[in-house]
Design goal:
InterPro entries: CdaR-like_regulators (IPR051448), CdaR_GGDEF (IPR041522), GAF (IPR003018), GAF-like_dom_sf (IPR029016), PucR_C-HTH_dom (IPR025736), PucR_C-HTH_sf (IPR042070). By secondary structure, this protein is of the alpha+beta class. Helices cover about 60% and strands about 15% of the residues. Strand 7 and strand 8 form a beta hairpin.
Length: about 625
């Protein structure tokens, strides 16, 4: 007897209950003992069956309890119905479980959920009312069960239904109604691919699951209606809240930008506030499309795209969108001061556009403030430079004190650079050159001013030639035209700076006379030629070309036509003090060759070309020719 208790305890399979009897027979036990074992086996199997029914009932109740729990926390009706159908298949041990719902508009019933199905045709079935087992259940509201549906003549078979059932391979089918009060809303099924009857307990279990499914569907309908109303209210509330938030955000951003202006902040600070509020990346450009500030990462758009977008922004008086970018023109009246280019992380609403447009206004205000301050400081610095280079210098100590307040040391080595007037024709060009010179000088602790048709810069340093060439190069790039710059110095103290200015003025005049426009040089680099060519006694420019033509023009023309080296011979001859032998050594030719060349020069210039007064003119002309050629 103990063996059967152990079998029951470990929930052994039915076949294992024959083990003790087989062992007893093999051991040759008496018949009465074997009969007792047989009776004990029968009792044990009854107990096992009872335990199995109770376990199964426990599983069914657990499934119903889980279904009720799902309904209590219903969020997704599809998920709940799928869970009910899956539990029906599991609890009944069916091959397939599925659910159809009635379509009141079309007057039929359609497949809603399946579990275990493999046929797409079966999953898409629609059943006319009264057709097939499901149609009959949907029409009558009574459960129906068949152990062999294809051969069951109780149901009205149709081609579509039979084809779907056949493709799925279903044989035994149980269907129970989904009842909502007195109304039938669908059918819940359990089916097998082999012929077998469904027990009464299985029908009862499926009816219970169907009741839960009906409740889930009706609850979902009510929840759907409630949810729709809540969503409408939530959407309306969201719009109101979003509008309120955006208005508050815009007001806060405007207050912050106003505070920045009052604190004297720059466009970089305004750009940082915009990006902090709106997100994304912001590029600030000036009127020439040069970058003033960049917060985040953003490639500068094509100039033509910027021009088109800003024209639209100015016309509409609002920011405009081009692809992922938003453009806002920075203007003051009719004057274009630049642009804001924003690439937001998220879409902008109207209030966000207002923030960008307010930022453009604040940026324009800062640009005007900066320009006003720069112009005022430029005037102060220009007036100081004008006073320093004016002769005679008055009150040098006062000039030093004024310069010190501006961060300029007049007693340190300084160079003076004068920009030729030929590059400054036109009011706008001249103004741009003056503005550039003021910024250029200020960043180097220097001064700049417009005087006598020139733009003059005072720069710290002791390399006038290099400074002149740097100014000519950089300003030439800005103005897109050749710029000539002459420099004087280095000089210290106001008196020395004033003298250096005169040298720079003569140097730029000499460069222009020599035809070396677009270059920079110092008076030291030009030597005595700069002093001679600086200006004529009457203030007019020297006529260098006429002087060259009259002094050595025939020799230069002869070299050009014949490919000779008469000019080179003259330079060597004068360079060695008129010695034929030494000139021949310099030129690497025979003395007779030098003699013959000098005779040719005498024929071209006249026999008196070596007389002191003519020789000086020839030597000066050779130097001018070399400088102008370089």
């Amino acid at each position: 007897m103990l063996e059967y208790l152990e079998l029951l305890a470990r929930e052994a399979a039915t076949v294992e209950f024959e083990g003790p009897l087989v062992a007893a027979r093999n051991a040759g036990l008496p018949p009465e003992h074997i009969a007792e074992l047989e009776q004990a086996k029968v009792v044990a199997l009854r107990v096992r069956a009872l335990l199995e029914r109770r376990r199964r009932r426990e599983e069914e109740l657990s499934g119903l309890f889980d279904t009720a729990s799902d309904l209590a926390g219903l969020r997704d009706v599809d998920a709940v119905l799928a869970a009910i159908v899956h539990r029906a298949r599991t609890l009944l041990g069916a091959d397939v479980a599925y659910m159809t719902l009635n379509d009141e508009t079309r007057g039929d019933t359609y497949m809603r959920v399946t579990d275990g199905s493999i046929s797409a045709r079966f999953q898409a079935l629609r059943l006319p009312m009264g057709a097939g087992l499901g149609g009959l259940v949907a029409q009558t509201g009574s459960p129906y069960v068949t152990a062999d549906y294809p051969r069951d003549e109780r149901f009205r078979h149709t081609g579509d239904i039979d084809a779907g059932v056949s493709e799925e391979g279903l044989v035994a089918i149980l269907g129970v109604p989904l009842r909502l009060g007195s109304r039938i809303i669908g059918v819940l099924y359990a089916a097998n691919r082999s012929a077998r009857p469904f027990a009464r307990e299985e029908v009862s279990l499926l009816v219970s699951l169907a009741a839960n499914a009906a409740v889930a569907i009706d609850t979902a309908r009510l929840l759907g209606e409630t949810q729709a109303a809540l969503e409408e209210l939530s959407a309306a509330n969201g719009v109101i809240r979003a509008h309120s938030d955006s208005v508050e955000r815009a007001a806060a951003a405007h207050d912050r930008m106003t505070a920045l202006v009052l604190r004297g902040a720059g466009v970089e600070d305004v750009a940082a506030v915009v990006v902090e509020v709106l997100g994304g990346s912001l590029l600030v450009l000036d009127a020439e499309n040069r970058r003033l500030a960049l917060v985040g990462e953003l490639d500068q758009p094509d100039p033509s795209a910027i021009a088109e977008a800003l024209a639209a922004s100015r016309t509409e008086g609002r920011s405009v969108r081009r692809g992922r970018l938003w453009f806002a023109a920075v203007v003051a009246g009719a004057e274009n001061l630049g642009a804001l280019v924003l690439r937001p992380d998220e879409a902008l609403v109207d209030a966000d556009q207002r923030i960008l447009e307010r930022a453009a206004v604040v940026t324009a205000l800062l640009q005007l403030f900066r320009r006003t301050v720069a112009e005022a400081e430029g005037r102060v610095r220009g007036e100081l430079l004008d006073d320093v280079i004016t002769r005679p210098v008055r009150d040098a100590d006062s000039l030093r004190a004024r310069a010190k307040r501006l961060g300029v040391d007049l007693d340190a080595p300084n160079v003076v650079v004068a920009i030729g007037a030929d590059a400054l024709t036109g009011g706008s060009i001249r103004q741009r050159a003056v503005s550039w010179a003021q910024t250029y000088a200020q960043t180097r602790s220097g001064l700049a001013a417009a005087r006598d048709g020139h733009v003059v810069l005072l720069l710290p340093g002791d390399a006038p030639g290099a400074s002149a060439r740097a100014v000519a190069r950089d300003l030439g790039k800005l103005l897109a035209r050749p710029v000539t710059a002459g420099a004087g110095g280095p000089a210290t103290a106001p008196e020395g700076i004033a003298a250096a200015y005169r040298d720079a003025d003569r140097c730029v005049t000499a460069l222009t006379a020599l035809g070396r426009t677009g270059t920079g040089a110092s008076t030291a680099e030009l030597g005595f030629v700069g002093l001679l060519l600086g200006s004529a006694p009457d203030g007019r420019d020297r006529d260098v070309r006429s002087f060259l033509d009259s002094a050595i023009g025939p020799v230069v023309d002869y070299d050009v036509r014949r490919g000779t080296a008469l000019v080179k011979t003259l330079e060597a001859y004068f360079g060695v003090g008129g010695s034929l032998a030494r000139a021949a050594e310099v030129l690497h030719v025979h003395v007779n060759t030098v003699t013959q060349r000098l005779e040719r020069i005498a024929q071209l210039l006249g026999a008196d070309w070596q007389k002191p007064e003519r020789a000086l003119e020839v030597q000066l002309a050779l130097r001018l020719h070399r400088l102008s050629s370089s």
